[in-house]
Amino acid sequence: MSLIHGGNLIRASAEYGIPLTEWIDLSTGISPWSWPVPAVPQTVWQRLPEDDDGLLESAASYYNCPPETLLAVPGSQYAISRLPALFPPASVALPHWGYREHQHAWEQAGHRAVYYQNELQLCTWVEDGTVTNALVINPNNPSAALLQPALLAELASTLERRGGSLVVDEAFMDPHPDYSLLPLRAANTVVLRSLGKFFGLAGIRLGFAVASPALLARLAVDLDPWAVNHPARWLGRKALLDRHWQTGQRDRLEACSRTWCAELRGLFPGLDWHRTALFISTETDQAPALFNAAARRGLLLRLHADRTPSLLRIGLPADPHWTRALTILDDIRREL
């Protein structure tokens, strides 16, 4: 089964008859400002990657965890698709709204999925034994819901007593480091991180699984030699060590997100908008109409229409596109 993701500009260009160069893509939730990639030395292109290049040590410093609990993977998608098969088939709690690759992977591995609507329902199902395992996307993609790490640690403890596990996808966590579960991670907990969103480096396909060394060894069995390419490792190590840029990026994203959310609330006051530092979303029956009206004008948003009502997720516009994006959305407001 091929799932639809954000960033399908070529498909949108063909469907709506608008040249690629005329689109504004706000469908991915990737930061409009990327870590400034330096020139990659010729030797990095010429040599095969090596495991002892300092990448895990840099990641351990950034994520504040021991290097032996880290596994570098070619994007967190690698771990998402393979983790469920490492657990015995059982019941798993998945978020009502969530990155659909999670659902696909758990079901393909033979687990029985039930979908929680909110934090209270998740806690109830964990406490009363309805589920053996649980998946949390924190902050949630696409709903923007954010759970406290202390609560997640309690859920992990309850699941552990029954032989279950907790998987937490923190792909959008970098702007909110105080909410990360990593400092409280228990042995039965897996945390997934990515350099794609906050660092704006989705193209290098680099992520990390943080778990017990025993589980990481099982996850690494299918990892091909040199699966994480040398330029990705070289750039990732440098980006993870660049504390000055990271601080500035958090401040810039937070300010942009607050302003962008205020603009959306001003244009569409009847909708209930929620935000993270990297995207804004709203759950509404109007989502398909808003998505199509925007696409006809060359503005690509992210529509989640597999639940009712649908959900619309909108990323942050880069400075050159801010005014045009607002103009398009204002046109849509008057049209609808």
Which CATH class of the largest domain applies here?
A: Alpha Beta
The shape is globular
Count of beta strands: 13
Strand content: 15-25%
- From the alpha-carbon coordinates, what is the Rg to the nearest angstrom? 20 Å
Q: What average pLDDT do the residues reach?
A: 96
The largest beta-sheet arranges its strands as: 2-8-7-6-5-3-4
CATH fold name of the largest domain, please?
A: Aspartate Aminotransferase, domain 2
Ranges where pLDDT stays below 50 over 5 or more residues in a row are none
Distance between the termini: 34 Å
Q: Helical proportion?
A: 25-40%
Main sheet characteristics:
7 strands, mixed
Give a short overview.
The protein is 38% helix and 16% strand. It contains twelve helices and 13 strands.
Report on this structure.
With 336 residues, the protein is α/β, with parallel strands linked by helices. The protein folds into two domains: 9-34 and 244-335, Aspartate Aminotransferase, domain 1 (Alpha-Beta Complex), CATH 3.90.1150.10; 42-241, Aspartate Aminotransferase, domain 2. It is 38% helix and 16% strand. It has twelve helices and 13 strands. It has helices at residues 9-16, 42-46, 55-63, 76-82, 100-108, 119-127, 149-161, 213-219, 230-241, 243-267, 287-295, 322-335; strands spanning 24-25, 70-73, 91-95, 112-116, 133-137, 166-169, 189-194, 207-210, 273-275, 279-283, 299-300, 302-304, 311-315. The strands form three sheets. It has a seven-stranded mixed β-sheet with strand order 2-8-7-6-5-3-4, sandwiched between helices. A four-stranded antiparallel β-sheet has the order 9-10-13-12, with helices on one face. Helix 3 packs parallel to helix 9 and helix 4 runs parallel beside helix 5 (100-108). The longest helix has 25 residues, at 243-267. The protein is globular and about 55 Å long. The protein starts with 8 loop residues before the first helix and ends with a helix.
